[in-house]
Write a structure and sequence with these properties.
Elements: E1 3-5, E2 16-27, E3 41-55, E4 76-81, E5 84-89
Antiparallel strand pairs: 1-5, 2-3, 4-5
Bound molecules: zinc ion.
Zinc ion binds at residues 9, 11-12, 14, 55, 57, 60, 62.
Length: 91
């Protein structure tokens, strides 16, 4: 088992994406015409609902859940520390 910096997809070598699912509202105001304003302010509730990692290659099935575990590739383990993401592959 070797720990490697995770800078590309551990399955195909493609570009990895990190997606954060956030909680926020779009706050409109009611205009003089009694309609909802087109402009809206974003009110952030701060809490991140979860984040996951996936491969940008459409032909690749690498995707993690919010615990950074991949159901289809259980041999791949992902860790995060202050230096970034690390990947370890079980032999
Ligand atoms: Zn991939």
């Amino acid at each position: 088992m070797r720990k490697k910096k995770m800078n590309k997809c551990p399955v195909c070598g493609g570009q990895l994406m990190f997606e954060e699912c956030c909680q926020y509202s779009l706050v409109h105001f009611i205009t003089a015409h009694g309609k909802m304003s087109k402009k809206a302010k974003r009110r952030d509730y701060g809490g991140i609902e979860g984040s996951f990692i996936y491969c940008s290659n459409e032909k690749c099935d690498f995707v993690t859940d919010t615990d950074y575990k991949s159901e289809k590739h259980p041999d791949i383990q992902i860790f995060e520390d202050e230096q970034g993401f690390w990947v370890e592959r079980r032999e």
